[in-house]
Amino acid sequence: MPKPEQEFWDPFADSGQENWKPVAGVPGLSEIILAADEATGSYTRLLRFEPGTDTTVQGVQTHDFWEEVIIYQGYLHDLTLDQAFGTGFYACRPPGMAHGPWRTPEGCITFEVRTFER
Fold first, then answer.
1. Looking at residue 12, what DSSP letter applies?
2. CA-CA-CA-CA torsion for 101, 69, 6, 117, nearest 10 degrees?
3. Cβ density class 27-45: b for 16+ within 10 Å, e for less
4. Is 52:97 a contact under the CB 8 Å cutoff?
């Protein structure tokens, strides 16, 4: 089944704390899955980095799916590139593209679309 039909809803309503689920492996990282296609595994999410989050424990990332990311709020410092990216910056990563790790002293929220081709 493709991603579900949804009208506007507010993932941040009532502070939205109950909507955020921890991401395994990195303290301070949590997500809200906005929509998912169970057949392909593709999904759209918000990813939140609490202030001080450091993803060095995961190292440089690569994966077997397309990933599009826009920084919704805050900024990330890419430790490999030694460059900071802030609100409004966008990335489109094909399968196998290396990226990260990151640190964010002040915190950050990204909007991501992950597309699995099966």
1. T
2. -90
3. ebbbbbebebbeebebbbb
4. no
Structure tokens at 12: 């941040």
pLDDT digits (tens, 9 = 90+) for 31-90: 999 999 999 999 999 999 999 999 999 999 999 999 999 999 999 999 999 999 999 999
| CATH homologous superfamily of 22-115 | Jelly Rolls (2.60.120.10)
Token pair listed for 96: 């196998």
Domain ranges (residues) in the chain = 22-115
Average pLDDT over residues 86-95: 97
Q: What is the DSSP letter of 65?
A: S
Report in angstroms the alpha-carbon separations of 35 from 8, 94, 113: 12, 20, 9
